[in-house]
Amino acid sequence: MKEFYDLADFSVEEIDALIALANRLQRKPDPQALAGKVLSLLFLSPSLRTLASFQAAMVRLGGGAFVISPDMSIHGIETRPGIVMDGMAAEHIREAVPVIASYGDAMGIRAFAERRSLDDDLADREYNALRDLVSTPLINMESAIGHPCQSLADWKTLDELGVPRQGGRFVLSWAYHPRALPLAVPAATVQMAAMRGMDVTVLRPEGFEMPASIMDRAAQAAAAAGGSVRETDDRNEALDGAHVIYAKSWSSTRHYGDKVADGDLRRDFDDWCVDDPWFDTAAPDCRFMHCLPVRRGVVVADRVLDGPRSVVIQEAQNRMYAQMAVLHEMLGNGGL
Ligand code: CP
Question: To 10 degrees, the CA torsion angle through 69, 84, 82, 3?
Fold first, then answer.
């Protein structure tokens, strides 16, 4: 495997093979598999799970990892192309990225959406500019529009829970958040559930529609796998019979990049906090999923997050096993 950029770059059979490998590594560790291998990790955006789970995954496979982020005592990094560097930044990303890459056998990059232009973010322009600077195998640790590591872990979690693929009802619900958040997790999650052949509903208020290109791509994946994808603002209809409620907040797509207009719109929807009544007409064993971090009492009520429906810790733990499988394929003797 030369790159792990998007779950859609892999077939369902290839993803199932990665999950089988993740499960095997979870049951039976392979502590010498990546002996002597180094993973370089560039975090241009904050993290807890991704930062920790990639380092833990490398150690568990016998290799090592190092982290570079602007929060460390590194030279100030300039990211703007064509800039005259007469300010505080002493190093440009165009040199920093290939240097960091050259110290490792593979590299992971996290760069959240800039949220200035929806077209730029849908095209993943910033990540792709960084990708052009790297010649080693590369892992997308969350870009403007993708988070394949989260999706692979969520795929594993859904399998473990026995949530049906065909016939399974998956609701991705927008939730209130005081800030406009990226589209990466919602876009990746719709695609993941669609690829599994589930009946996927995107539940969101008016003004927070998922971009058409994301929905169209997911609809094609769902059709190929025997599922469906739709979008609604009708909570009662969406949640009826749901097997999974996956909560996530995202930016208004109507006012993308406009903080004031986005803030004015979202203020009306602060009742979009997942709580027990959301499960009244759902399937009896309906699960609550979220990628974390999550704001308690804002995105989800404590009693849901702390209750038996919540699988958020399992999702987070599966990040490590899913990434072990990716690293094993990328740096070991993988066939993908
Ligand atoms: N879910 C996720 O990517 O978590 P972090 O932002 O903490 O890495």
Answer: -20
